[in-house]
């Protein structure tokens, strides 16, 4: 909550044992790593804006998790969270991001010319291509912790910057709280509209406060470049189109992002970034690139194959239903995207998707013909 | 809003801002380390109350009606002794715009002092919700002498069950929206220890939500005793479901007629109930049980939150005063179809709910009928009102059965003119 959480001082009159959460039923990264000793050392700290350890972990306490799915269980309230609470967050990051160490450096590469191929994914299989990431504006608290004033300031800044985009990026902003019924229906039909979060993972962290104040959607007139303002992050930036031309999608993504970053800088604001964590976002799972590049692809045969999961794992890809995270696939159509976010650059991750999808389609074609796929099984990336 | 000040707020530029606020180098260096309240100060300058004032134009709740920009500006930066803020009180009302037909309260207290520190907001809300009761000038009567109730045994041909509930808060510990885990566990410890001292028909046992067996859970469900994690956004947006199910539980006596919920929407909810129409006995047990629990906690140096301005202090302003809801499940097949039913209830200061509780619809002809009011009348007065009202409803039902006509009674007086 805004303006300094002095409430934390009051809790200190109870001992650490008395305050330590019951995590005995829990399965998430935070619960696995938050020992009583770490809790004791961190409980008296707070970030300059007043975000405390209990604020970081509340969502993980309230959402014990699932035996099969390991959620993160903690969030950042501002950029400094990752510093002040590094004793907890470094192990969480290491656990979540495949062994990424506190001393590791993350590369940022948003030069689309470095991507090889990707303009020819077979449209008989690939229905659509999409790349998304998030950006946080330095100097403002993140969605779990921001005040209404801050959130509105982020919105105002974003609108100012996005309004100056031109050419194929020229577009318009639709504030959630005052769109007309016609505009709302259009955004739903375009699959652009985001709604108030219902996931308890998000609600428990305080991200849905004051909904729909200062939330909105900006998109270009071509409907291929889209920015969400003040949902789970300050900004979510999405480039997408029908078909399999991932290269074009990634081109537009990089161009758009770079332009937007420049426009914010012109107004005296940078994005939260550092050379260890890359781009800083609300959820530790989105650190680094915050990038998810994916396609909707038809794999009716491959998805029934016993080795499907193994292949995905080797390719460092993950599958989701076409409704997004936590949905099931319908009709053999899957959302396949990169599993990693941190420790690989943007170009490297999109390359993995492009190469991986090519291979999966090859396998699908072989299975269609009744052939085996054993000879084209990939090595672990 | 973004302008020159915003640039200054990032880490290394705070020094420049501090200088502009008049802090010297040494002071700046000292203040920029552990004590983060300085950044809070800088932020307050950067974000005046007007920049934070919530957008309540689509809202229909008591808080939205009472919270003006001037009141917000005055109260935004205040803290209760437990460091609870106005924004935290009103968050549930901001997040839940309400319904055109149903006016919710839209704010909660985080501690006893919320009602004082934020009185400029809470007092008009209390007046609005409690029919003109003015906490600045009026006092609330407490009366738990059940012997005063007359005609308190209903015709069981109509009344299926009788129930009285209230809440109690333990003074010195924060309320469910604000409490830390340690405080919540302390509430549980204090209450469970006290309840262990109850004897005779009140002797019973405690079931912690987190560690009951499947069998115990099923029994509590069958008895209609089990409460679950709140799903209503009115409660979840007020931070009451944090750390569920830690330190939550249910206590009931062996006879299953006296039940206490621990750490749900209030520190405790106390319920006396039984099948049939003996409301007098239900209320007698209610008063006796409450008094005994109070005595047991006092022996250990604790007391309930109470003052003569607001009566018993509970999380939601709607439950101040007595916090009492006395009700029956009653069959009214003829009366419920009469067009005057609602008016009759209104004038008798009664409300109807479905038999699933608040926000449920009635099934068949059986209704949950209870008192509307909580504050400004004592427990005895409210239960008597309920008793007289239900007896009147039964008389109406009997008349309609025989084909006779009924009369709408004159309205019972309220504070509001």
UniProtKB/TrEMBL annotation, chain A:
ATP binds at residues 128-132, 191, 236, 292-296, 320-325. Residues 96-122 are annotated as: Disordered. Signal peptide: none annotated. GO terms for biological process: phosphocreatine biosynthetic process. It catalyses: creatine + ATP = N-phosphocreatine + ADP + H(+). One of its GO terms (cellular component) is extracellular space. This is creatine kinase. It comes from Labrus bergylta. The lineage of its organism: Eukaryota, Metazoa, Chordata, Craniata, Vertebrata.
UniProtKB/TrEMBL annotation, chain B:
It comes from the Eukaryota. It is found in: Mitochondrion inner membrane. ATP binds at residues 161-165, 224, 269, 325-329, 353-358. GO terms for molecular function: ATP binding; creatine kinase activity. Residues 158-400 form the Phosphagen kinase C-terminal domain. It is a peripheral membrane protein. It is an enzyme of class 2 (transferase). Its EC number is 2.7.3.2. Residues 44-131 form the Phosphagen kinase N-terminal domain. GO terms for biological process: phosphocreatine biosynthetic process. Keywords: ATP-binding, Kinase, Membrane, Mitochondrion, Mitochondrion inner membrane, Nucleotide-binding, Transferase, Transit peptide. Pfam families: ATP-gua_Ptrans, ATP-gua_PtransN. One of its GO terms (cellular component) is mitochondrial inner membrane. Reversibly catalyzes the transfer of phosphate between ATP and various phosphogens (e.g. creatine phosphate). Creatine kinase isoenzymes play a central role in energy transduction in tissues with large, fluctuating energy demands, such as skeletal muscle, heart, brain and spermatozoa. Belongs to the ATP:guanido phosphotransferase family. This is Creatine kinase S-type, mitochondrial. It comes from Labrus bergylta.
